[in-house]
Write a structure and sequence with these properties.
alpha/beta, six-stranded parallel β-sheet, metal-binding, HAD_sf, hydrolase, N-acylneuraminate cytidylyltransferase activity, transferase
């Protein structure tokens, strides 16, 4: 391995299919898709040279690129339920080397389903191989539990009773008298690239254990795990600012209407008049943004009196009946003297993607189309029409609105 400046490639496998949690890798935790969270932490690492996301899904690819990763299209034959992470990593490494004309020295496997992995963990496993002579490394957390396993009879059926796995059940030593066990977190692994190709699996030679904070250990395998992660995110993410925009990042907020300020349903009475439902909390949030002296605009494709009436109620300028929202947005920014990178745009459907490409902070509501969520820099935990704009206002102003 080279003594200086090794090429350290972080690979994040992220399939589109997920049975336990549909579209899991695009699920938002702390307002950010899981795949984007992993990319951002890898990019913040001291040692990582580049970040590759291996995926078969267009939405995941868009989210990964938006967070700064290189995307490698994963072939179908290694994208199914039985495909191994090792196969995805080797394919991604091959594709990266072919396109960049450089050899990878150390390859990392980083799982985006561990939402609270941090750059220090990634640097820890990378340094173990790149700087400390290990062949492989993984993140672990100190573990003090007693592990049990149900006994089996000779036919392999469950038998009565259980047996201790890491202890003798007839003897219960004190914690300080027991050898220290470690739990594999599943978050990050590092391997010498040449040895990994030869072995075909992630553990060979000398394997170093890199300790991480047990409180951050969480793998998302089912909806309950996702709910726990979303509940914990405000606590952990508060220690690592930058995942969500603040008032210092933004000069203007531009809002789509249907599906963003509404739940995307339309009621039509017998005279053909359309009615939509909006959320009072969103009005509160918009008022708070106006008091914070942010420029505001409602931008809608639909030419509808309902949109204009809501804009008047909120005291927000409106442009509606717009075919090319991106051109209208660009012109508005020029007229207002606002740099597009200082604009937060909130949308929910594919006709918002062009505007997403113009602004610094594309934000999707929780109920947005999966491709839109994937292209967003942040995603609300609240559905459109149910207070999503109020949630965004709380991000920007750094407080809950009441």
């Amino acid at each position: 391995m080279p003594a200086s400046s090794p090429c350290v490639l972080a690979v994040i496998p992220a399939r589109g299919g997920s049975k336990g949690v549909p579209a899991k890798n695009l699920a938002a935790v702390g307002g950010v898709p899981l795949v984007a969270r992993a990319v951002m932490e890898c990019r913040a690492s001291r040692l990582v040279t580049d970040v590759v996301v291996s995926t078969d899904d267009a939405g995941i690819a868009a989210a990964a690129r938006g967070a700064g990763a290189v995307v490698v299209q994963r072939p179908t034959d290694i994208a199914g339920d039985t495909a191994t992470s090792e196969a995805a990593v080797i394919h991604a490494m091959d594709a990266y080397e072919a396109s960049h004309g450089a050899s990878v020295d150390v390859v990392l496997l980083v799982q985006c389903t561990s939402p609270f992995i941090i750059s220090e963990d990634i640097d820890g496993v990378a340094a173990a191989v790149a700087e400390k002579g290990a062949d492989t490394a993984l993140t672990v957390a100190p573990f003090h539990g007693f592990v049990w396993r149900e006994g089996e009879d000779r036919q392999g059926d469950a038998a009565d009773g259980g047996d201790g796995v890491n202890h003798d059940k007839s003897y219960r030593p004190r914690r300080q008298d027991r050898p220290q066990d470690f739990l594999e977190t599943g978050a990050a692994y590092a391997m010498d690239a040449r040895g990994f190709r030869e072995a075909g699996h992630r553990f060979f030679g000398r394997t170093d254990l890199v300790r991480t904070d047990p409180a951050r250990v969480l793998e998302i395998d089912d909806p309950h795990d996702l709910a726990r992660a979303r509940a914990l995110a405000p606590l952990f993410d508060a220690e690592r600012p930058g995942a969500l925009p603040t008032r210092e990042d933004i000069d203007a907020v531009v809002l789509d209407f249907d599906g963003t300020q509404t739940d995307d349903r339309v009621l039509i009475d017998s005279d053909g008049r359309e009615l939509v439902a909006v959320h009072r909390g969103d009005g509160l949030g918009i008022a708070a943004l106006r008091r914070a002296e942010l420029a505001l605009l409602i931008l809608s494709t639909e030419k509808n009196p309902v949109v204009a009436a809501r804009a008047r109620k909120l005291q927000v300028p409106v442009l509606h009946g717009i075919d090319r929202k991106d051109l209208a947005l660009k012109q508005w920014c020029e007229e207002q003297g606002i740099a597009p990178e200082r604009v937060l745009y909130v949308g929910n459907d594919v006709n918002d993607l062009a505007c997403f490409g113009l602004v610094g902070w594309p934000v999707a509501v929780a109920t947005a189309h999966e491709i839109v969520r994937g292209a967003a820099r942040a995603v609300t935990s609240t559905p459109g029409g149910d207070g999503a704009i109020r949630e965004i206002a709380s991000w920007l102003l750094g407080k809950e609105l009441s």
